[in-house]
Amino acid sequence: MRVLVTRPEPGGRRTALRLAEMGHEPVRLPLFEPRITAQAADLPEAGPIDALVATSARAFDFLRGAPIPRPYRRIPIHAVGPATAHSASEAGFATIQEAGGTALELARSLIANSSAGGEGQPARLLYLAGRPRKSSLEAELGRAGMSVTTLETYEMIEISYSTDFIMDDVFDPAPDVILLYSANAADRLVQLLSDKNRGKSLRSARFLCLSSDIRDRLPDPWRARATASARPEEDSLLASLAALG
């Protein structure tokens, strides 16, 4: 199948290689590119911080090439899933815990295992976040009375494409399957194809989404042909692709 990959680089290249190994024809169309917006010096004093929280592997990119400030080296990391946990490990952190794969699951895990001021439990959190983002994690933790400081470490910037590129390189022929990795990517794809008048070319395309939240951002005709992966991980997403036959 011809599969459109909307994942930002460099992850999009890795996904394309996996798709080629599976016998598919990958087409890369990253809709955003990351820009680092923080540096190690922007970290607040570690004394009032009990734990770091991250919902994206990109949250730690601002520390690459720079040593972790010494007071932070023993602070535990609460990561949304395995990719984020791996990124934290590569950045040099040693104490890392994984949640179930979504921001809401991460928040509920923290709440279930913590109480504000509870002995030995993280009540004062530093959230290494991106922009734009959903407020679900911060809101959920705030309602539970946990202290959350947010440091935006990266921003996702929209990528613009010419009409010729969209029409000739990406949608001729139209993809059989489109992989969507974020709600922002779903919104951007809808906007991009509306602007280029290419929405009608996807009358039969299937949409595979990393989560149900992403699927729900699609307009009705597309949502009817959209599937959310069982887990918000690429292995699960590509298993959904294999299941299409």
Order of helices and strands: EHEEEEHEHEHEHEHEHHEH
Structural class, please?
alpha/beta
Instruction: Label the overall shape.
Output: elongated
**Mean model confidence by pLDDT:** 89
Report Rg: 19 Å
**DSSP helix fraction:** 25-40%
Number of strands: 11
Give an overview of the whole structure.
- The protein is α/β, with parallel strands linked by helices and 245 residues long.
- Helices cover 32% and strands 22% of the residues.
- The chain contains nine helices and eleven strands.
- α3 packs parallel to α4.
- The mean pLDDT is 89.
In short:
With 245 residues, the chain is α/β, with parallel strands linked by helices. 32% of the residues lie in helices and 22% in strands. The model has no long low-confidence stretch (mean pLDDT 89).
Topology:
Elements: E1 2-5, H1 11-21, E2 25-28, E3 32-36, E4 51-54, E5 77-79, H2 82-91, E6 96-98, H3 103-112, E7 124-131, H4 136-143, E8 147-158, H5 163-170, E9 177-180, H6 183-195, E10 206-209, H7 212-215, H8 220-223, E11 226-228, H9 234-243
Parallel strand pairs: 1-2, 1-9, 4-5, 4-7, 5-6, 7-8, 9-10, 10-11
Antiparallel strand pairs: 3-8
Helix pairs in contact: 3-4
Can you tag this structure with a few keywords?
single chain; 245 residues; alpha/beta; 6-stranded mixed β-sheet; 5-stranded parallel β-sheet; 9 helices; 32% helix
